[in-house]
Amino acid sequence: MAPITKQLDTNIEELRGMPPPLSNPAPDSHEKIVFGVYDRLLDHGHATVNVVLAPALPDGSPDFGHADPTNLEMLPGDIWPDNPQDAKRVSIVVDEIDGCDPATSMLVFFSDFGDPFMEQIAGPEVDGDIAMRIIGRDIGAAPAIASAPTPLSESMAKLREELFPPIPANDNVPGALRLVNPADWFGRPVPTREWYAEDLIPSRQVTIVNGDGGVGKSLLSLQIAAAGSMGVDTLDIGPVAGRVLYVGAEDEEEEFWRRLEDITVAHGRSLRDLSEFRLVPLADRDALLFVPDRAGNMKPTPLMEKVIEAAADFRPRLIVLDTAADLYGGDEIKRGQVRQFISALRQIAIGFDCAVVLLAHPSLQGMQSGTGSSGSTAWNNSVRSRLYLTADKDDPDLRVLSTMKANYGRKGGEIKLRWKDGAFVLDDGKPTAASVMVQAQAERVFRDALSAINRTGDRVARTKGVNYAPKIIAARPEGAGVTVKALEAAMHAMLSSGEVKVVMEGPPSKSRQRLVLASEDFGSDRHAA
């Protein structure tokens, strides 16, 4: 990656405490500015910061141009070096920057006169501009003074107070800052990781379920949620039994009624068993939960505050948000806004000790690549679990649920599902009536088209090439609506049954392959392949 270096346009004079420039810097001014910038970045909390030593040239002077995360040295004990050459190498490495790829690292260093410069030393180059803006903004502005609490923060404070009642000060409890010594864990049982649905939906985190419109992601999520509220397993998934809050912005209340009726019947239950399920239907209103303010920062809407209040009263184990297209009011390709949105949802998941599932449509690129991702990579990078529901092109009732991201489990798992009577069931691999009909249609089309092709003197073959039979037939008028994959299956089935055979035409030196129906013969110069 080519280095990207830029002088930062900041209010660095505020940190210097004197008018710029430092024409005759005091011996300790460099140290004050470095640690002043470090403290400022640390206070803002938009990144992870550390004071480090950059690599050195043979003469001992700093080599900022060849710095990378592997050749930086931590400043021992945060003690300023006595050696003037080493002091010039002191810089600040900034990682885990809001809105940037986790691999992105920036190095902030200073001239002899205290002017700050920055260089991107790792990560995608596209992150350079936003990282410089964030870091420059934070260096040049003191942390915001605490303002009046928002309704969201008030609701979360109320929740925390209920979950963790304040302890009287005379109990000599340590302050809010906790320093944990991992050695204290020795000999104690390791806490188990909590799941809402094992290997799929972690508790206290946000899980995204991607799926194209109409594929059934809402139905699947509704089914898992309903099963959890009824305390039953579904699709070999054992969701945690408990209350569920489902926020649905795409369908009207009557549609949820119909779907839940089918789901409960499929599990041998009735709607009466959904007493631990709460539905918030929003199809008839503006459903945005978060929108950006004038500065582009995501803020909760009054509707979001009402949802939080409902959750605070109901205490669900699972919150489903259906879907991001209706509930998220930001720009889906702006990483900072996406991360703020997901971060707010994670705060809710942690605060309520529940799982949050967010349904989302994949982008066109996500569908074409098979990843199912949405817009900015921040959607995928900001969550700990992401699932992708896809449909089968040839079987209208078959679905595949794939684990696309699993920080706490195994990636790449698949569950094959089948739509049946308004709910999903596990696919056992046996042909269904619908798939049998599709196969029968493909065989009929293949049979009729092959006969017509041979009658005109044209030729198709079983091997892939310019005359590949399934591809040629799919492009003909009679092949409309039948996929190449279905025609391939039909060809192999008819070859196996003997209904179609391969013959070779012409002399041995120029023999050519032709597919024919066994019941038809159009020449005497052929022999069986």
Verbal overview:
This protein has 529 residues and is an alpha+beta fold. It is globular and about 95 Å long. The strands form five sheets. It has a nine-stranded mixed β-sheet, with helices on both faces. The protein folds into three domains: 4-139, no CATH class; 195-426, P-loop containing nucleotide triphosphate hydrolases (Rossmann fold, 3-Layer(aba) Sandwich), CATH 3.40.50; 433-528, Arc Repressor Mutant, subunit A. The protein contains 15 helices and 22 strands. It has helices at residues 12-16, 29-44, 84-89, 127-139, 151-163, 217-230, 253-266, 302-314, 324-327, 335-352, 364-369, 378-381, 433-455, 469-474, 484-497, and strands spanning 4-7, 48-53, 73-74, 90-95, 105-110, 116-122, 195-197, 201-202, 206-211, 244-248, 277-281, 290-292, 298-300, 318-322, 355-360, 385-391, 398-406, 414-420, 423-426, 500-505, 512-517, 526-528. It comes from Shinella granuli.
- How many domains is the backbone divided into? 3
The H-level CATH homologous superfamily of the largest domain, spelled out, is P-loop containing nucleotide triphosphate hydrolases
**Strand content range:** 15-25%
* Secondary structure: number of strands: 22
Distance between the termini: 57 Å
CATH class of the largest domain: Alpha Beta
- Count up the helices: 15
Low-confidence stretches: 15-25, 141-146, 167-171
What is the architecture of the largest domain at the second tier of CATH?
3-Layer(aba) Sandwich
> How can the largest sheet be summarized?
9 strands, mixed
Kindly identify the CATH topology of the largest domain. Answer: Rossmann fold
Arithmetic mean pLDDT: 81
